[in-house]
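From: lab user (bench 3)
To: helpdesk
Subject: output format question, protein + iron/sulfur cluster

Hello, I'm new to running complex predictions and I'm not sure whether the block I got back is the full result or only part of it. Here's what I submitted:
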Amino acid sequence: MKTTIALALTPAAMAGFLEGLGEPPYRADQVLDWLYRKQAYNFSDMTNLPQGLREKLQKEAKTGFLELVKQQVSDDGTIKLLFALGDGESVETVALPYRTGHSVCVSTQVGCKMGCLFCASGMPGFVRNLTAAEIMAQVLQVKKLLAAEGHALKSMVLMGTGEPLDNWAALLPFLNAVHDPARLGMSLRHVTISTSGVAPRILDLAKLGWPLTLSVSLHAPNDKLRGKIMPVNRKYPLSVLLPACWEFAEITGRRVTFEYLLIDSLNDGENQARELSGLLRGMQCHVNLIPLNAVPELPFTPSKDAAVLRFQEILRQNKINVTVRRKLGADIAAACGQLRNTFRGSEQDGCRRDKRQGKSQGKK
Ligand code: SAH
Ligand code: SF4
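Helpdesk reply: Thanks, we reran it on our side. This is the complete output you should expect:
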């Protein structure tokens, strides 16, 4: 029989589960309160439940919280956490100390199928989707850690390892739990979903009409270059991706953010800045320029400061809203694109890289 994971249950499912154990429905509120407000990692800590029920729960279910394996703190206050999953896999999660309040950056998959050439997260290839409960556990465990230091969790970004729109089956129940007042109770206005551009799912997301922020990883001003560095563009080229983004903006009333990674001598030229301006002209959007974060094994270097400034200036001259993103956590490899599964050690990293280059050595 499959073990029940408490963090996977809706309030109605929790009430049903407890009813099956012979408990009245109000117990569901108590258990949810422990899970989401007090973040009790074990049923035995849920002290207002009768002892007998706590024992029954320990036998019949798991809370769904994750085992913290490693914690690193950056000079700038960014915290990177490595969690072990039940099946021996692991994920990384980052707590970000923004000036406007603390944020959590969660992973949605172990590895990633998308294979963007500049990203460490995709290097192992795809291992598996995370469940909604595994994504929520990352949020709650960071929330608890921040609370212990007197900070509130204000927002979240789905920008860790994985492509959130490639894990739709977990994304929807997760987002439902996020804005459900009986569970996390965080407004979707504080949630940003970052995607490499899975256009049909952007349209599905738009249809929900939720006030989320959609952040699209653009990184190139034309299909030729984008298709080279982001294989997803061969399936959903700009002529398909951009209309989906505009539809999202129209239905939700939320301005779309475009992330544009600046890579030395690849996509950071003046002509490319002009081409990008043309592509986005007249659109309600915001461009976030991100100087590349170094991934030692990959042959890309960040743009020089002068190129970043010039790129920004050209976008501004063309009346595009633009900012340069502040880099956080790079000293502990917690910045965008640097997350990877470090749990299994460096020996396998080599195998994964070979696999991506099409030189699989037959070892999984
Ligand atoms: N898969 C989603 C979300 C996870 S990646 C996506 O691609 O949007 C989060 C962000 O990190 C994306 O904007 C991605 O393009 C960016 N990124 C990947 N590698 C990077 C690197 N080496 N330096 C800086 N940003 C990087
Ligand atoms: Fe996957 Fe995003 Fe990395 Fe691309 S940038 S490989 S989509 S995690």
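A quick orientation on your result: The radius of gyration is 21 Å. Let us know if anything else is unclear.
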